[in-house]
Amino acid sequence: MAIKLKELYKDNPEYGAPLPALSLGKYKYVRQTDIKNKIFNTFVNSGPLLKKDDILISRVGSNAGETYIHDTEEKCVFAGFLVRYHFDDLKLKNKYFYYWTKTSKYKNQVKKMITGSGQPQFNPPVVSELMIFIPKIETQQQIIDIIEPIEKLEKIIIQIINNIEKSFFSRSLNFQDSIKKNIIWKTNGYAYEGYEKINDGLYKIFTIKNIIDDFKFSRTNVLKNNLINIGDLVTGLSGTIGTVGIIFESDWVSNQRTLTLRSNIPLNLKIAIEKQVDFLLKNATGAVQKNITMNDILNLKTIEKKLNDELINKFYIKLLLLKNKIIKIKNCEIKLLIK
Fold first, then answer.
1. What's the mean per-residue pLDDT of the chain?
2. Options 3.40.50.970, 3.90.220.20, 3.40.366.10, 3.30.420.280; which CATH number does 2-134 get?
3. Which residues of 98-119 are buried (b: 16+ CB within 10 A; e: fewer)?
4. How far apart are CA 64 and CA 114, in angstroms?
5. What pLDDT does residue 251 have?
6. Predicted model pTM
């Protein structure tokens, strides 16, 4: 049956601690900007500690309504724009709730319930009014047991990807080499007209906004001859300077203010751009919206190359493809199993 979420509370929602983030400290600091990628690079020395399987919901900003489950024993503190929710575990399992928040049932309610025109708000009094369908607790556990192994596999793949990226990031820049010497094709994005962007088009459009945002996209009916390939590197030339993504799906096209590069070593180039983002920002033009040119990217130095880099790059792209397939399987399971 469907009931209001507040009827499932064990304790009142708990606000996080608005603390200054430190580069070093006793506990990792879980902020709302970090919960999607689950990469926590800042620290604090005190604050409310998370326990395993705690649920957090972002309450403010563009990611209001985004959820996080603390599926580790690691002690972390959660920040002020996040709220911890305590459910009666005889009625609702935290992990089932977390999976439910990945469904359209949750997302459609959030869209309707978010308040605030300038700064979106999704605070506890509103969250409490969510309507959720809850099966028997035994059924919830059965659903968790089906989805969880896929999620664990996803985490293993992500960890391998992160380890490869860290290994490449530890390399020094090679001041005798440049990005333009290591590309075989390049193109600026195309300025599409409004009528070319439709919800049910065949192709997916890459903009400066979705380079590092899990490839969120709008559909478009653009011509096929603007397609970019799996393994191509896309970086922003305006606003999101220094952000880089590597294509891991087919049928993508690139929008204006992006630059697409094709190379046998795209990961090397991705890391090189990320390591020199401060240089790019320093040399960018524009008072409000920072802009750079294609040549600004092409003239950047590369990282030091090693003998087997091409093979590692091929393996890295296969991992991106595998991760994408696993996520699709997991989302399909959630859609089928959770009402």
1. 90
2. 3.90.220.20
3. bbbbbbebbeebbeeeeeeeee
4. 8
5. 83
6. 0.85
